[in-house]
Amino acid sequence: MATKTLMKKKESTSAKTMSGAQAVLECLVAEGVEYIFGYPGGAIMPIYDALYDYTDQLTHILTRHEQGAIHAAQGYARVKRKCGVCFATSGPGATNLFTGLGDALMDSTPLVCITGQVFSHLLGSDAFQELDIIGCSTPLTKWNFQVTKPEDIPYALAKAFYIANTGKPGPVLIDITKDAQIESLDFKYPGKPEIRSYRPKPIMDMSSVKKAAEVLNEAKQPFILAGHGIHIAEAQKEFQEMVEKAGIPIGTTIHGLSTIPDDHPMNRGMLGMHGNVAPNILTNQADVILAIGMRFDDRVTGKLEAYAKQAKVIHIEIDSSEIDKNVKTEVAIHADAKDAIIALTPLLEKKTYPDWYAQFDEYERQEQERVISKDLTQ
C-alpha cells in the first residue's frame, strides 16, 4: 500500500508542535467544521483521545454503526450545504463506510471521511484489522490518500476539503496510520491548495453557448430538464430569471426539486418513473430539450432507445464524462451550471408558447382528475 507524494502549498499559520491526532482536529477547526459523526476503534483512538481538548470547538456525534455515521454526515452536508465529516477505524470500520461513499459519489455530496489505519510498518502484513482501504475505496471516492507521516496531515486534509467541495462535489477519504497520529509535527495549516492536474471549473466554450441560444430561439416546443447541478452551483436565482425570460416550461429531477418554486407557472412537475404525467409524455414531443446539471439516469429516461428521439438536446454539465454518455447531444456545454446560465440568458429571446403550455395543462388536468383527486378521497 504505497503512499503518493503530496504537493506542498503556502503555509498560512505559524508553526506549533503537536501530535498528528491534534493536527487532524486543528485542520477541521481551520476548515470551519462544526460536527463530526463517527464510531471509535483502536486504529483511530489517538484522534478520539485528542478530541477531549476540542470539545469547545468540535461536536462529535456518536452513532451506533459506521454506516450510520456516514449517512448522518451526508444528511448534514445536504441540509447545511457544506462538507460533512465522519470518523471510522481501520478494516471493518472503514469498509462500513462504503455504502455511504457510493451514495455520496452518485449524488455529488461533499464528504471528508477520516479512517484510522494500522502502524505503517505493518502495512501489507495482514495485521489485525488491516485492509487496503485506498485500493478498496478508489472507485467510491472523488479522491483518496493514505497518510503515513504526521507532517503530511495538514496538506492531505487541506487538499481533501478543497477537492470534496469544489467542481462536482463528492466524497474524499483520508486514511491515517496510527504512528502518523501519535508522532509529532510542526503544524502549519496551508492556504488554498494548488493542484496542477485538478481544474474544478472547466473553461466554458462561448461558441457552444451561442449555438445553444440559436437552437433554443428557433424552437417551437422547448423543454428544460432541471437537475441537481443547479442547486450545487447555487444558481436558483439565475435559473428562474432565465426561465422567466425564455418562457420555457421545466421538469425537474428528484434532486432538481425546488430549483424553482413548485407553484411557478413554468414548473410542470417532476420527471421520471415516480414523476408527473405531463413532463414525462411531453419530453417525447419537445423539439428542443435543455438539460442542466443532470445525468439522464434510467429513472428519468426509461428505455434509452425510445427516449426523446425527436428532440435536439442541449446539455449543460460540469462533468465531461456525463456528456453524450446516455443521450447524444446537439450542443454540449461543459461548464458550471451557474456560469452557463449567466452566459446563456442574455442570448435568449423573450418568448411565450401558449399552445405548448396548453398541452401541459391538459395532461395536468387528466392527472388531477384520474389520479390525484381519487387518492385524496380515499
Task: Outline the fold blueprint.
Blueprint: E1 16-19, H1 20-30, E2 35-38, H2 45-50, E3 59-62, H3 66-80, E4 84-88, H4 92-95, H5 98-106, E5 111-117, H6 133-137, E6 143-147, H7 153-165, E7 171-177, H8 178-182, E8 184-187, H9 206-217, E9 222-226, H10 228-232, H11 236-246, E10 250-252, E11 267-270, H12 277-283, E12 288-292, H13 298-301, E13 312-317, E14 331-334, H14 337-344, H15 354-377
Parallel strand pairs: 2-3, 2-4, 4-5, 5-7, 6-7, 9-10, 9-12, 10-11, 12-13, 13-14
Antiparallel strand pairs: 1-8
Helix pairs in contact: 1-7, 3-5, 11-14, 12-15
Protein described:
- This protein is α/β, with parallel strands linked by helices and 378 residues long.
- The chain is 37% helix and 18% strand.
- It has helices spanning 20-30, 45-50, 66-80, 92-95, 98-106, 133-137, 153-165, 178-182, 206-217, 228-232, 236-246, 277-283, 298-301, 337-344, 354-377, and strands at residues 16-19, 35-38, 59-62, 84-88, 111-117, 143-147, 171-177, 184-187, 222-226, 250-252, 267-270, 288-292, 312-317, 331-334.
- The strands form 3 sheets. The protein has a 6-stranded parallel sheet. A 6-stranded parallel sheet has the order 11-10-9-12-13-14, sandwiched between helices. The protein has a two-stranded antiparallel ribbon with strand order 1-8.
- Helix 11 runs parallel beside helix 14 (337-344).
- The longest helix is centred in the last third of the chain and has 24 residues, at 354-377.
- The protein is elongated, with a radius of gyration of 24 Å.
- 46% of the residues are buried.
